[in-house]
Specification:
about 500 residues, C8orf32 fold
Length: about 500
């Protein structure tokens, strides 16, 4: 054979070997490659469930999947009525790499007034489990999975069909035990899922739209047991828990709001999915906050719109962590005294003048501000007194929108009216102020809210509705000078998915 023939044969042989390797990889992908493909198909979403026992609506559940550039977090939450009349809840948070490698988990179980916590973290090839003050180390084989992500992966690994079986290594987040579990698809069916609702005049919610979803029944052998129906996206449709409770996917309002309406005294904490509610907490029927936060750390979800970073800067990109702090007492001291100079008032004329809905020249507002201020010259002291007066005198009530004059005339209002009246009264006292529009963190969710900033040499957020001077770290500002976010900002806020990853409460 000529030299040219040898070279040609070598090239063809190398090409054939490469093609053979490629076909082998495509037809028989490695476990890591299959998991990487599954990871790309897991979508960030929160699903809600009605919890039933014996046909009765006894609780609420949610499963939130949050994907960020380098990790994936799944939060499962179930809260129900206990026989004794208290609340019982189970929360499981599982954090994984984007390649679906388990990193850590946390389980918090609450039974009325007793709580227990189990945490686990993968260190090299060991699982370090902490519970009740003790720590143990268990050898695990990776990849291992914990919580609902196991059934999700079992469905997404292959095209689901009856009889399909997958064996995987799992960690029980309730005990920290590592075992091997076989997941088998036992049946296939079609479910009608309610995905939106509307309320009537009584406040009860009713279904208005239904979706037909094909799902497969997945049953496991071994512990922890699993018996549930999963759809083609790997999302839970219906499940029977070992305790006998049944979870049925539905609209949030049907799962939670109707249950809250029946048990308003104990349902607030069920709102723990981190989503933004398109209304104030008062309009949503949620009680006033009882906790004050000194620090709040919030992570923006992967679904954060690009417009958000464009509007507020690179710190507000998907996956970013934002920190909010309560103004320390030392910074509340005023840096000037009243009355101020003409030049000073001219420089801050916009924050001192009457404006639409901020009628600081209204006689009733001006008289009340003058009476509260009296002969004092300290703007911080006067502003604090005004906040206290508005908090004590104005009744929190959902009503048709009005301005500061309307609020003092009716002596009632929602967060918007509290903010406008506080701003008007502080301006009438000769202290610069403007309203703020944003979100309020309460019970694990975020509600549209309004408050005020007063200028005492630096801008200090205050909230007369909550009686806070200064406003705590649960206040997340987005718009200065208005209590109306506007349709553009409201659209962006409604699409946010926020999760609190750290909080320090004021003792």
């Amino acid at each position: 054979m000529s030299r040219r023939g040898v070279v040609a044969t070598s090239v063809l042989t190398a090409w054939a070997v490469g093609l053979s390797v490629l076909l082998t990889r495509e037809l028989n992908p490695s476990s890591a490659a299959r998991l990487a493909d599954v990871a790309l198909r897991i979508i960030p979403i929160t699903t809600y469930y009605r919890v039933e026992q014996g046909g009765r609506h006894v609780g609420f559940a949610s499963i939130a999947i949050d994907t960020v550039p380098h990790s994936l977090q799944v939060t499962e939450y179930v809260v129900t009525d206990s026989v004794s009349g208290g609340r019982q809840s189970d929360q499981v948070v599982v954090r994984m790499s984007r390649g679906l490698s388990l990193r850590e988990f946390e389980t918090i179980v609450t039974r009325v007034n007793d709580s227990s916590r189990v945490t686990g973290a993968i260190v090299d090839s060991s699982l370090v489990v902490s519970r009740a003050g003790s720590t143990s180390t268990v050898q695990v084989s990776l990849p291992s999975f914990a919580g609902i992500i196991g059934p999700t992966i079992a469905v997404l690994l292959d095209r689901p069909k009856v009889g399909l079986t997958n064996t995987m290594r799992v960690v029980d987040p309730a005990s920290g035990k590592a075992t091997t579990r076989t997941m088998r698809i036992e049946a296939e069916s079609v479910f009608v899922v309610l995905d939106s609702a509307v309320s009537d005049s009584s406040g009860r919610w009713f279904a208005v739209h239904k979706d037909t979803v094909r799902a497969w029944r997945l049953v496991s052998t071994g512990e922890p047991a699993f018996d549930g129906w999963m759809d083609a996206q790997g999302l839970l449709v219906e499940s029977r828990l070992p305790s006998g409770l049944i979870l049925k996917r539905t609209a949030f309002e049907l799962a939670f709001e109707n249950w809250r309406r029946a048990h308003p005294e104990r349902a607030v904490s069920a709102r723990g999915d981190g989503s933004v509610v398109s209304g104030t907490f008062l309009a949503s029927g949620v009680p006033m906050p009882t906790e004050t936060f000194d620090t709040l750390r919030i992570r923006l979800g992967a679904a954060t719109p690009r417009e958000f970073a464009a509007r507020y800067g690179r710190a507000y990109r998907p996956g970013s962590i934002i920190r909010y702090h309560r103004t320390p007492e030392a910074r509340l001291q005023a840096r000037y005294t009243l009355p101020t100079t003409e030049a000073w008032r001219k420089a801050l004329a916009r924050e001192l003048s009457p404006a639409p809905f901020i009628e600081s020249d209204d006689p009733a507002i001006a008289r009340r501000a003058a009476r509260i201020g009296g002969p004092d010259r300290d703007p911080s002291l006067i502003a604090r007194r005004i906040v206290d007066w508005v908090h004590d005198s104005i009744r929190a009530e959902v009503l048709s929108e009005t301005g500061a004059a309307g609020a003092i005339d009716r002596m009632s209002g929602d967060a918007r009216e509290f903010a406008l009246l506080t701003t008007a009264m502080v301006r009438a006292a000769g202290i610069p102020a403007h309203p703020i529009s944003g979100l309020l963190h309460l019970g694990g969710r975020f509600y549209l809210h309004s408050w005020t900033e007063v200028y005492v040499g630096r801008w200090i957020p205050v909230d007369a509705m909550l009686g806070q001077y200064p406003a705590d770290a649960a206040h997340i500002p987005f718009l200065t000078g208005s209590t109306e976010p506007g349709p553009d900002l409201a659209r962006i806020l409604s699409r946010l998915q926020l999760s609190v990853i750290g909080a320090v409460k004021v003792q």
